[in-house]
Amino acid sequence: MAHNGSGKSTLMRLLSGDITPTSGSILVDGLPLHQLSTKEAAKHIAYLPQRLPEAADFLVQELVALGRFPYQKWLQKPTEFDVQIVEQAMESTSVTQFAKQPVNSLSGGEKQRVWLAMCLAQQTPYLLLDEPLAALDIVYQVEVMQLIRKLVNEQGLTVIIIIHDINLASQFCDEIIALKQGELCIQGSVDEIMQEQKLLEIFGLKLHLFNHPAGLHKVAVL
Fold first, then answer.
1. What is the pLDDT of residues 186-206, one digit of tens each?
2. 3-state SS of the chain?
3. Distance CA 70, CA 34 (A)
């Protein structure tokens, strides 16, 4: 979490290998990220950027199948295993019923689930999501966060997600990291971060905390 322009997306691009750090190094499972080929890196990290590519005339099943790219040779047809993984990814994200539909015919929340399915088809232990809730209304925001939480719980994924809503973060995330002017500001568990003084440091606003009537953690209001 951070103000706009604090370096959140830049950090995601660094972690994904999209850009190279000017100093230091990023290790993925003990391996220097910059030394991995694009395909090898894609076997470790799935990255969903803030601005998604145009899906054009792709059918849902075709887009999800692109997640198998790291495991295929040039012009190789999908194996039975590839097909099985794609079907499992669509089932996990509840988009199987849209398999033969054009991606662009779906609603915002449905599209996000399709892109998440593509990431799952990569079979990576790490998933990076840059503002996947942007432009979604509250219903779809909760739907996507519930899905991500389910994937973490059931598949053991490590997910790093950029979101702006502190209350959604407090209800669905395990840990919160805040940046300020390109540097780490605060990092801790939800309970450690959901304190009025900590939120004041992050947002520069006096927020009041109340117990959520149905949640484990507090919520913040002006």
1. 999 999 999 999 999 998 889
2. CCCCCCCHHHHHHHHHCCCCCCCCCCEECCEEHHHCCHHHHHCCEEEECCCCCCCCCCEHHHHHHHHHHHHCCCCCCCCHHHHHHHHHHHHHCCCHHHCCCEHHHCCHHHHHHHHHHHHHHCCCCEEEEECCCCCCCHHHHHHHHHHHHHHHHHHCCEEEEECCCHHHHHHHCCEEEEEECCEEEEEEEHHHHCCHHHHHHHHCCCCEEEECCCCCCEEEEC
3. 16
Residue type, 58: F
Map out the domains of the chain with their CATH numbers.
Answer: 8-164 (3.40.50.300)
* Closest to 87 (Cα-Cα) out of 75, 77, 99: 99
Other beta carbons less than 10 A from residue 221's beta carbon: 8
Q: CA 92, 219, 168 angle in degrees (round to 5)?
A: 25
Cα–Cα distance between 105 and 98 in angstroms, integer? 10
| pLDDT, tens digit (0-9, with 9 covering 90-100), for 103-155 | 999 988 899 899 999 999 999 999 999 998 887 889 889 988 998 999 899 98
